[in-house]
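note to self: dont lose this again. the chain is below, predicted strucutre after it. 309 aa total, dont forget to put it in the shared folder this time
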Amino acid sequence: MLSVARGVGGWAATGRAALGALGTALAEYARLVRLHRPVGIWLLLWPALWGLWLAAHGHPQQHVFVVFVLGVVLTRSAGCAVNDFADRRFDPHVARTCDRPVATGSVTGPEALMVYAILSLIALALVLTLDRLTVEYALAGAVLMFVYPFLKRFFPLPQVWLGAAFSWSVPMAFAAETHAVPRLAWLVFVAGLLWTAVYDTMYAMVDREDDLKLGIKSTAILFGDADRFVLAAMQLLVLFSLWLAGEQAGLGAWFHAGLAAGAVFFGYQQWLIRDRDPARCFRAFTNNVWFGLVVFVGIALDYLFRAPA
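---
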């Protein structure tokens, strides 16, 4: 009896150890895909919601809405995994990224690729429930997202490429809702591309000194001392592109109020980055979540309170 009890106790201890190891691994995978830092999810989600609401005149299909929201979470998470794989030799030397799981070795490179593959396949399974045109756009978007992390070694404008990847949900939304991608979709896409390039340049300003030492390319380095001026010009182009989209969509006062609120947030971001302090540049980057929100609220309220035809 004593030997049986010891055997049962040993199995229980082994089981607890296995569960503990699994829990630790899952926690590290969650850190790998930045679930503890959802800012990236919101920044990727807002253009998708702009596109859905404009394409569906304020009433997106429930199934399409669910697919896009879940797809954004999965895509952003997969993008973080492949990004950390691509940057595994750089991240340990950058103050902001040296504690990432792949950089510390708590997650291996092959594990990061495995997480990327699993999340991408789940996202693909969701998209396959939509029409063929949307699936085709989704596959093109997957290529944009996968290629981005590897561009920073030689392409001086990786933030522009990221803008295309992050805003690709806009033509996808129109394809899913209307089975076409009209000029309105591309106007919103351009706005999203420019906006992403703006906030990711602010993000790159945080790491500018480390990136210069490592030879990593970014728009923060390319723009140099003209960074604030170029960002201001790009912010104006974002507002102008969205205004043009609103005119084409027939949006009114609520939308324009949202744009005005967005302009205030842009002004605040310029104030934050005025001395190029890394901590304040990071705050300017995260503040863009509010820009995306007020633009979406303006679109949603405009459709909500629109007089019936």
